[in-house]
Each structure stands twice: as C-alpha cells, then as structure tokens.
Write a structure and sequence with these properties.
4 helices
Length: 79
C-alpha cells in the first residue's frame, strides 16, 4: 500500500512538471542541444502538456483500479 502511494505520488509530480513547468523540462533535457534557441517551441510545449495530461489520466486509472480492485489489463483485453 505504501509503495503504491509513493509511486503514484511520484508519477503525479512528473505529470505536474510536464504540464505546468515544461520550461524546466526543456532546460534540463533539450536546451544544451541548441545554441541559438533559448526558448522551447510551441510544439514542444504542446507535447509536454499532452504527456502530462496523459500521465495524469493514467495515474487516475491506476488509483481507481486499486481502490475498486479492477484488473485493467483484462478489462481492455490486454491479458
């Protein structure tokens, strides 16, 4: 139980950073590759925010499946 809460908290923190602090993600992962651009592109911002929303939805599904004891893999046919 404690491991699940810690893992979900870490994933929610990553989703938050991707959605709201995409500039920080850009500075850490991409800025060193470019000498001319000091700001991230709109496509990078949109893809980070999309990834954050997707991860948030995945974590919510994990929490709901844990609370209600639902096997999501068999529910979606991924046995």
């Amino acid at each position: 139980m404690a491991e699940f809460i810690i893992e979900c908290s870490i994933l929610l923190l990553i989703a938050y950073v991707l959605f709201f602090k995409y500039e920080l993600v850009y500075e850490i992962t991409e800025s060193w590759k470019s000498y001319s651009s000091s700001d991230c592109s709109d496509l990078y911002r949109i893809s980070c925010q999309f990834g954050g929303v997707t991860l948030f939805i995945l974590v919510l599904l994990l929490i709901i499946s844990y609370i209600f004891d639902i096997d999501l893999f068999s529910y979606f046919g991924l046995d």
